Amino acid sequence: MAEARPVPEVDRAAAARKAVERRRARAALKRDLTMRVTTPQTVLARATADPDSVEGSMRITDFLLALPAIGAGKRDRILDDLGISPVKRLGGLGVRQRAALTRWLDERFPVIEPRGGRSRLLVLAGPTAVGKGTVAAYIREHNPEIHLSVSATTRAPRPGEVDGVHYFFVDDAEFDRLIDAGELLEYAVVHNRSRYGTPRAPIDAALAAGKTVLLEIDLQGARQVRKAEPSATLIFLLPPSWDELVQRLVGRGTEGPEERARRLRTAKVELAAQNEFDHLVVNEDVAAAAAEVVELSSSSAR
Length: 302
Ligand code: 5GP
Hints:
The chain is an alpha/beta fold and 302 residues long. It is built from 12 helices and 9 strands. Helices cover 49% and strands 14% of the residues. Strand 5 (184-190) and strand 6 form a beta hairpin.
């Protein structure tokens, strides 16, 4: 007679490891939702497509609690209103429950509708350490047909930076003069430290010559461009995950712990501004993100 064989030690260890991994993945997913690195609609879509996925195995209660500005009280009221039992997992919702949840999400967290504008003025912004500079540098190297704006800044050049290529390095007096003479399209103090601004004349000239112009600037600058040139196409660069953004910030190793904590707080606020933008691009891979930005430039320049 066949005896029930004990589960081998290795299998048990592997299963435990897998459970830990899944818990970790769910925790990371919650952080992504809270920090708005991913949209709740995307998570629900993945849960629906694959109930066995990390998204699918997430409890509806945890999902709602991870959303910005939803506390336990609100969560319970929402579940009541939507007629969803708190024991449900995202991947196990019924058709009607899913439809009700989708309606509620769309109302509460409107999805950005890509704009089909005609602007050749592109603005690339995003949270600190997301890699805007790297994506812009990649475009400068591979897409010479796109005019990459060179900013003026009062910060000192870093090793390898060339005046007139990476920035126009100016002193405070010269920056004041540029502002007074109306020569800057926008300007801002970035990271509480130095001033940065976009010279207007080269952009006007490039646009007049029929070129597409790309500005890699901070959020305050992007908002000013939006006001000055409402037709500009605003692109927001997202990290693949919140954990990855933290990693990139730490990995850079150029800031101390206090400065790092400050930048993470800033990044959280910056991520909350993504709805002001026309397009979202995820920077998982620099070449792919650059290609997406370039693609937006050609489609918006039609
Ligand atoms: P970094 O000093 O590391 O080169 O740049 C710091 C930040 O300044 C980046 O987030 C970059 O996007 C932003 N920045 C660079 N040029 C400009 C500019 O002309 N205007 C504004 N508003 N921000 C800029």
